[in-house]
C-alpha cells in the first residue's frame, strides 16, 4: 500500500520526548486543579508513528476544538481557562470548566464517537479532586479500534496492527475529513448563490429571472454533477508538487470533463460553465496553498492564481481570430477589449479580494443571515463590476444603468431593510423585462462564499 505523503510534517519524536511531554501534562493538570478546583478537560489526538504534527493533523485538531466548544456552549458550561500547546509531540489543549464532571465526560465521549475523525480524539476529563472520569463511570463501554472496530485496548496490548497500517489509516481519515470539508464549501458556494432570494435577473428559489431555459432545479442537478469533478481538482492541488502554471495546465482537461457532466445533467443547458473554470481554479489552488503553508489565505491564493494562469491565458488571447471570433467572450474581447472571467483570473480575481470577501467576512461578524448577506454582496458586486454576462446580452450603456440601479438599491438599505428588499424585487422585474442577467457577479459571489467557508478550517482569528 502506498505510504501517505505527510504535508509540512513536524520532526519525528522519540521515547524521551513522549515521556517528557507526559510528565509536563501531569504537572500542568495538577497545577490547574489546585488553582481552580473545577473539572479539567485535556484534549489531544491519538496519532500513531513518530510524526505527531502536520497540516492535516492540525486541521483535525482545530475541528475537534470547534466541536467541543460548540457542545460546551450548547450545554451552558462556561470555560474558565483554556490553553493550547503545540509541540513536536502533538497538539494539546487544556480547559477548566464550570460544570459537572460526569456531564462533561458525556459531551467528550459523544464527540469521540461522532465519526471516524472523532475516533482520533482523546478527551480526558478530571473531576475537581483529580479523579479521572472513565467511560464506565457514565455507563459506556471501552473505545473501539479504528482499524477493526474491536476493543481498542486489546488491539493496543497485542499490537495487532503495525504502525505503518495505523499511520495510513489515520491519514486517510484526516484526508477524507479535509476533502469532505472542501466538498461542503463547494456546495455551500454553488447552492448558496442560487438559493439566495430575491436576486435581480438571476435564477433563485422564487423564479428563473431573465432565463427561459433553466430554473432552480436545473441548477441543483448541475451542482450535483460538477461537485465531484471540482472535488477532484481540489485533490489535484493538494497532491501537486510542481509549479502553479503546470497545475493550471493539468486542470484544463478536468474542467472539460466537468462541463460534459454539466451538459448531461441539464440537457445541454449551460448553467455553470464559467464557474467550472473559476471555481476549479480557486479550489485547486486553495488546496495547493494549504499543503505548502498550512493555512487558507484567500488573498494569497488569488494572487498565486493570477501569476500561474497569466502566461497560458495570454497565449489564448493571442490565438483569437479577430476576424472570426467564435464565442461571446471572444466577441467582447475583439470588439471592446473585455477579457471576462479569464481577465479576472489573470488579475487575481480583484472583485472577490476587494469587494465580496471583505463584505462576507463583515456580515458574518455582524451575525447576518446567509440569505441577506449573499444578496447584499451580490448588489455590491453588481454596483462596481464590469459584468460580461450583461455586456453579452446587451451593451455598455445597459451595464452602466444596471450598476447605477444596484447602487440605488444599496442606498435604500439593500438586503438589510424591508424597503431595500422590495427594491430588489422591483429590480428583478426590471431586469427580466430587459433580459439582464448579472451572471458574472453571481460567479464571483460563489467564489467568495467558497473561500469564506474554507477559511473556517483554520484558527478563528477573524
Brief sketch in words of this structure:
The protein has helices at residues 15-36, 55-75, 101-112, 152-158, 163-195, 216-239, 244-266, 273-293, 298-318, 328-336, 340-346, 350-365, 370-382, 388-393, 396-411, 418-434, 439-455, and strands at residues 40-45, 79-87, 90-97, 121-126, 132-133. With 462 residues, it is an alpha+beta fold.
Mean pLDDT, to the nearest integer, reads 92
Oligomer: single chain
Order of helices and strands: HEHEEHEEHHHHHHHHHHHHHH
Shape: elongated
* Structural class designation: alpha+beta
Strand content: 5-15%
Corresponding CATH architecture of the largest domain: Orthogonal Bundle
Biggest sheet details: 5 strands, antiparallel
Query: CATH H-level name of the largest domain... which superfamily?
Result: Triphosphoribosyl-dephospho-CoA protein
